[in-house]
Amino acid sequence: xxxxxxxxxxxxxxxxxxxxxxxxSMEGEVYDARATALNRELGLKTPAAGPWNNGQPGHxxxxxxxxxxxxxxxxxxxxxVTLAAAVALAKQPAPPPAPQSSAPQMKTFTSAAEATxxxxxxxxxxxxxxxxxxxxxxxxxxxxxxxxxxxSVGNAAVHENEAELFYVIDGSATLVTGGxxxxxxxxxxxxxxxxxxxxxxxxxxxxxxxxxxxxxxxxWFSPINGVLVLFSMHVPGxxxxxx
Length: 243
Fold this sequence. Notes:
single chain; 243 residues; alpha+beta; Jelly Rolls; seven-stranded antiparallel β-sheet; three-stranded antiparallel β-sheet; 31% helix
């Protein structure tokens, strides 16, 4: 009878041993140094020499398992670095807000349906005893057109630097122009108001009429028959009567 092979010889011919040997041969001393350092950090003992590590101390009993543990540690370190970078990025000051456009707003068309809706909106928003409710209709630079919903008599006015164009959308009233403001008071740098007009010229206006009031000219809607709905546009003016 022949002699049975030694157990360690059988182990040396096993596929697992061949795989271990291949991994060790691929990693070499670099892997062994990393594995030893990792074992020290983790407080693990370095295995002594034996048949499982080809007589070389320092290699793990399962070289493949050690390699996998090392790979997981490397991934953990990479994750920690990524998190640290994210925290540093979060601490950076936020970028300044984008500058808002200074371009003037433009609205160059209002449909009949929109105008009808604005009349209803003005009626619903009007407070008790409020003489005039305005709604924006057109905007183009210094030319701003508004709807005026006048349900009662308000103040007379003078615009020192602007003419004013009116179109009667609905209703009727008497428009008084010229003369002098009663109880005149300044409302801002270029506009005056008064409780009435003395010595002005009255004119009856109704739906479909157009009126252009020059700058520096007192004007007043009184009396108003029910509700007067107007389109009004202030126009930068250069003309004054008598010039």
